[in-house]
Each structure stands twice: as structure tokens, then as C-alpha cells.
Design a protein that fits this description.
Layout: H1 3-10, E1 19-20, E2 26-27, H2 45-57, H3 64-80, H4 83-90, H5 95-101, H6 106-112, E3 120-122, H7 132-142, E4 148-150, H8 159-168, E5 174-176, H9 185-194, E6 200-202, H10 211-220, E7 226-228
Parallel strand pairs: 3-4, 4-5, 5-6, 6-7
Antiparallel strand pairs: 1-2
């Protein structure tokens, strides 16, 4: 990024409070030089809304003027580096930052939401915002790349959503659905049928799951090594 663009970005913050830069992402004024101005700070309701909008819509939120402002620098980077190398760079970015990158340009949106960058996802911190649409869109984007998923306390997730997840992500290895109270034996049936590599599952406090569901998944998932069924009252 050119010096003028960086100066313009940094000038958007003052007095230590976060603000919105010309890229449409949150920035922070910090004395720590290692704190990159584009690192995400998803704390407010609006930021969480933008985060999940990125996941569900798979589109950018920039207007024409914003794209023109950074078009020259971004295009230079995109044309100098091959897609494979850019994907490699993106693979080191956490999923919150990936959602920020997805808002930079249409090309970066494609790179940031590539399934290879989403092998391990923990949505526990966003439990009140995660619903079936978010989970299903994530599973479509990640596909066979997704191996670890934590959706603890995401109470809006149901059996239908888990069926789509298991169909879209056959290489799932670790799954935490603790306190996902709408799940039943049906979810375990689909997981046992479509996710043969599952070796770790936490279904604690899923009250609608009983012995029949436990038997299905233990019989069909030959790689299963660990299962938490605490507070499964049935």
C-alpha cells in the first residue's frame, strides 16, 4: 500500500477510539506499532452484523468511491502475485480478519472466502448471531476443507441445518454442539452417515439426544475417539 493511502487510513482514528476507515473496516489508534490498522475489532452489534452479512451474502460492502480509492494499490498486488500465493498468505489470517479482507474488493472476497482458509472455525463468541443460514452458507463455502467446528450454545441450529452441514463437509473431524438444544438423534444420524472421519464430538446438554443416537454415531464413525454426552438426560 502506498504511503499516502496508509496516512489516509491512519488519519481516520483519533483519541484512541475506533472509527471506520475508507476501507469500511474498523481501525484503532494504538501505540503498539505491531497493531495493524486493518485488524478487526468485532465488539459492537453493528460490527457483528457486518461480520455475518459477509458470511451469508458473500458480497462486498464497499461503494464505488471506496473501490476507486484503493483500486490502484490492490490491483498492483493482485497482478504481481499469483492466486496460489495470495491464497497461501490468506491461510495465515484468522477468520475474523478474513471477513474484513472480503470487504476490500471482489477479488479479495473470492480469496478470503475460499474454503481452504476455513478449516477450523469457532463461532462460540457469536452464539446469539449464528442461525441456520449462517451455518449452511459456511458449510457451502468451506466444503470438504472444514475439519473443526465449534458452535457451542448456538441455540438456533436445528437438525435440518446439521443435515446440510454433514452433506457439505464430509471431512469434518471435530465438532462441538454443546447446548445446541434443538438437535436430536436425526443430527447424529446424518453425521454418522456422511462424516466418517469424525473422531471428536461434544453433544453435552443436547437433551433430545438419547441412547439410540449415541449408538448410531458410535457404530458408524469408526474413527471416533472421544465423545461428551454429559447432561444428555435421555
Amino acid at each position: 500500500t502506498s504511503t499516502s493511502t496508509i496516512d489516509h487510513l491512519n488519519s481516520q482514528t483519533n483519541d484512541g477510539y475506533s472509527s471506520t476507515s475508507t476501507l469500511g473496516v474498523s481501525t484503532i489508534n494504538s501505540d503498539d506499532s505491531s497493531q495493524h490498522p486493518l485488524l478487526p475489532v468485532i465488539s459492537s452489534k453493528n460490527r457483528r452484523k457486518n461480520f455475518f452479512s459477509c458470511l451469508t451474502n458473500n458480497t462486498t460492502t464497499m461503494d464505488t468511491n471506496e473501490e476507486q480509492l484503493i483500486n490502484e494499490d490492490i490491483c498492483l498486488l493482485d497482478t504481481k502475485l499469483p492466486k496460489e500465493l495470495l491464497l497461501r498468505i490468506f491461510s495465515y489470517i484468522d477468520y475474523k480478519s478474513l471477513c474484513r479482507c472480503a470487504q476490500v474488493s471482489k477479488y479479495w472476497n473470492t480469496l478470503a472466502l475460499d474454503g481452504s482458509n476455513w478449516q477450523s472455525i469457532n463461532l462460540k463468541s457469536f452464539q446469539r448471531d449464528v442461525d441456520g443460514i449462517v451455518l449452511e452458507n459456511l458449510s457451502k463455502q468451506c466444503g470438504s476443507f472444514l475439519k473443526r467446528l465449534d458452535i457451542e450454545n448456538c441455540k438456533f441450529i436445528n437438525d435440518h441445518n446439521m443435515r446440510n452441514l454433514s452433506n457439505n463437509c464430509p471431512n469434518l473431524e471435530r465438532l462441538t454442539v454443546k447446548h445446541c438444544t434443538k438437535l436430536s438423534n436425526t443430527s447424529l444420524y446424518h453425521l454418522s452417515k456422511h462424516c466418517p472421519y469424525l473422531n471428536h464430538i461434544n453433544i453435552a446438554s443436547c437433551h433430545h439426544i438419547d441412547d439410540q443416537g449415541i449408538k448410531m454415531i458410535s457404530s458408524n464413525c469408526s474413527n471416533l475417539e472421544w465423545i461428551d454426552i454429559s447432561w444428555c438426560m435421555n
